[in-house]
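ARCHIVE CARD
CATEGORY: sequence design from structure
SOURCE FIELD: tokenized fold
FIELD CONTENT:
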């Protein structure tokens, strides 16, 4: 088992690259959610400013 994990002396590079891959994969999966949240917050702010400018209440 240790031989497999060591990968002939290159285990740190191989397992490190897997770790980086999974971190990037997780970030790519979570990024659209964060972007959506930011855009919705911005749109709500714009709508609120527009309503206060026009004197319209919700």
């Amino acid at each position: 088992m240790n031989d497999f994990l060591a990968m002939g002396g290159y285990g740190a590079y191989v397992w490190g690259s897997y770790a980086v891959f999974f971190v990037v994969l997780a970030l790519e999966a979570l990024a659209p959610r964060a972007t959506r949240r930011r855009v919705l917050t911005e749109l709500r702010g714009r709508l609120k400013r527009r309503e206060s400018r026009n004197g319209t209440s919700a």
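CARD ANNOTATION: The mean pLDDT is 92. DSSP finds two helices and no strands in the chain.
SHELF: design records, drawer C
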